[in-house]
Amino acid sequence: MIKSLLLFFLIIMNFLGSKAYAYPHFISLGYNSCITCHYNPFGNGPINDYGRSVSGTAIASRDFYDENKPEELIASETAFFMKEALNKHIKPFIGYRGMFYKSNLGQEGSKVEFINMQFDANLVVKFGEKDQFIASGTFGYAPIPRALQNTPTGDAMKEYRTREHYIGYRPKPNWGIYFGLMDKTYGIRVAEHNSFSRISTQLTQDDQAHGAILHYSGPTFEGGLNAFVGNLATKADVRTKGFAGTFEQTVFEKNRIGASFLSQKDDYLKTMATAIHSRSQITYGTSVMVELGRVDKKPVNGTLTRKEYYALLQNHIKTHRGLYFLNSVEYFKSSLDKNYRVRFGPGLQYYPFSKLELRADVYNTRNFNQEANSRDRWDLLMQIHAWF
Amino acid sequence: MKSLLVLNLLFTIFTTDLRAADVNTNIKKMQLSLDKNNPENVEEIYDVNEESLSKNWMALERLALSFERRNKYKEAIEVYRKLIAKFNLPEHKKIIESTASPVTENLYTTNKLPYYYYKLAFLNAQLFVSSNKYMPEADRIKFKKNAEGYIGILKKVRTDEGEIKLIEELISEKIKIEDQLSYKTNWYVFLDVISWQDRVYLKNSSTKTKSKLLSTDIGSSLGVGKKWSNSRYEFNMEGEYSVATSTISNDGAGPTYLQSSVPVHSIIAGPGMYYKAFSDKVFVGLQIPFSYRTGDWEVPTGYEFENDKQFGAGYFFQVKFAMGNIAIQTRLGKIFPNPASHWSIGAIYDF
Fold it and tell me: Staple B295 to which of A250, A362, B257, B264, CB 3.0 to 4.6 Å?
């Protein structure tokens, strides 16, 4: 089966290969690197002034604007609360994500809930002649992850906390070094924190770690090395310490191929992960991303190493400005058994105007487990993402 | 005798003047009707006074205009042709025969030939543009050729280039629309990752009791199809052969039955359609699949399968994104009597 999937991915890539973060699929709009639009060189978190303009004039639709409204005016309204920046050094940002979730569609036991996933306030301060010094701090509401609820680790977590804070220095435009609490540098940082590529590698929405990141961004090569000591706000025994790195090379104009590694350890588990990936622009507004990875997990006090394999294929199609159709196929297998899981998820992503993203996905998860056959399962996820 | 001749001459002059006065009055009435947007009256005046008005180019021009305003293009064309043949034939012949461009100015600066050519080109173009499938093909070709012919003549007599371009655009736009609406036939092949869930019944050969098994299948599929598409719609007929692996186990009470990596083969064929939505590259549609599936599940001793070979039919919702000859296609639907959904994602190549 793996061969079949791999063969398919390779064929797709061969078909489309002539032309390869946050939202890493925006390579489709010509944005190869995250740092173009984000303060954090590996994406996620607040967007910079240029990113705000791009969100209004290239990503969001014009459906709710007068057809004669100039793009320059739309761009100027993308600033914090539509006001022009007070000064060029202090950049506030507020973000919210909520999700309507209906599980097990059409089946008994179907549940409906609304989850406030994130409500953050962020302040970026940058100074220096070329903005080479930067400090970013985010604080806000972050729910206890479901897997940790009613556990000692979960009980120790606070619902209002910081998920990211760091200081950075870029002595040259190509080079930067950052210290603080940040996401680890590994793989394609897709927005779906429930994807196998993020769950298996333990890089979900609350897996940031304090550490240092060295970032390089050249004309065709970009990479980052990350040394980390775990999240100092958590208990010492679950702080993951280790190294990670991700590297991308531009091949042809709008394709990037990359490789990543992650080595980390807490008091209970050693994890070693490696991955290769590609991001490709097919046509303007349309992209395909592929990541193939292997994760070895070995208990500190055990001998049995569990090997996990995952594959991610994600395709974004711009139907018209502001509206994207998404396709995701994911594969996950653990060496502990013969079972594997496949997740299929078509979805729609709509930016009616700058500062608002609406997204609807349906996910079909199939568990190929001969010992515990599971009925077909469909989940509906509808997200609202607003930022100011 | 002389006095009779003089009287006759005076009478002729008098009646000619009277007729001339009548013609002028009628032309004024025709113009007044056009000014008051009553083009029907123009034809009535003409019909009543045809004998005198048919010899007057001013009357004929007004008659042609009245036809134009009532979209009676064929009649208007006849009148303009009469205007050329009756009042401008020698100059017209010289212009036709001339090969140089532009022709000598005195051939058209002293008459209204450029205006008539323009009208004839425009009206023939209008007839071609308004043509539809009910119009005989010979007529359509005639109107197009006539329009193009008069455009060619117009170019010789230095008429406003913008006006000529307008008529040319009218014709080319019509050709483009017809081209877009006409259905083109293409063959295509596609390669998909495909997944579905199957219900299989295991029957005890002696007691005839049935137990339900659930098979979860995933594999790849290679297909070929023929499509008929225009700028808006696409209709297809296609077939695909799938090779998949099945993971199967009990779905309820019954003897324990567990197997994985069992080969499953299926053939799916059927008609479908796409509608071009959102943009030129995005298609949404519906497919009606008919399927035949076989599975090589191991038969336990004393049991038999009731439907290890099964026919089915259902529906797929489908979305396709095309980039030249390549397209990415996603399908989601159900094939009955399977208990769960069927999905696929893959690539299409159009020949």
Answer: B264
Domain with CATH 1.25.40.10 in chain B: 2-180
Q: Does A375 touch chain B (CB under 8 A)?
A: yes
The tokens 């769960």 sit on which residue?
A: B340
Fold type of domain B2-180 = 1.25.40
Q: Cβ separation of B278 and A338 shorter than 8 Å?
A: no
Cβ-based neighbour number of residue A22 at 10 Å: 19
CB contact under 8 Å between B330 and A346, yes or no, is yes
- The complex's ipTM works out to 0.75
Q: Encode pLDDT of A14-60 as tens digits.
A: 333 333 336 888 888 888 888 888 999 998 888 888 888 888 888 89
Q: Which of B247, B249, B276 to mutate to test the interface with A (most CBs of A within 10 A)?
A: B247
DSSP 8-state assignment for residue B104: P
Once rounded to an integer, what is the mean pLDDT over residues A222-245?
Answer: 93
Task: Check CB contact under 8 Å for A329 and B216.
Answer: no
Gap from A116 CA to chain B (nearest CA, Å)? 30
CATH architecture of the domain with residue range B184-350: Beta Barrel (2.40)
Q: What is the DSSP letter of A56?
A: I
| Token pair for A7 | 């063969």
How far does B310 lie from chain A, in Å, by closest CA? 20
Tokens of B347: 């690539």
Q: Which residues of A touch B214 (CB under 8 A)?
A: 373, 375
| CATH 3.10.20.30 is held by the domain A2-387 | no
Task: Give me the pLDDT at residue A147, please.
Answer: 74
Domain regions of chain A by residue span: 2-387
d(C-alpha A300, C-alpha A67), whole Å: 62
pLDDT at B140 (0 to 100): 83
CA-only gyration radius of chain B, Å = 38
Give the pLDDT confidence score for residue A285 in this predicted structure: 85
Q: What is the pLDDT of residue B5?
A: 59
The tens digit of pLDDT for each residue in B252-269 reads: 777 788 888 899 999 999
Question: Is A372 in contact with B326 (Cβ distance < 8 A)?
Answer: no
Q: Which residue, among B341, B344, B348, would best test binding to A if mutated, counting the most A CBs under 10 Å from its CB?
A: B341
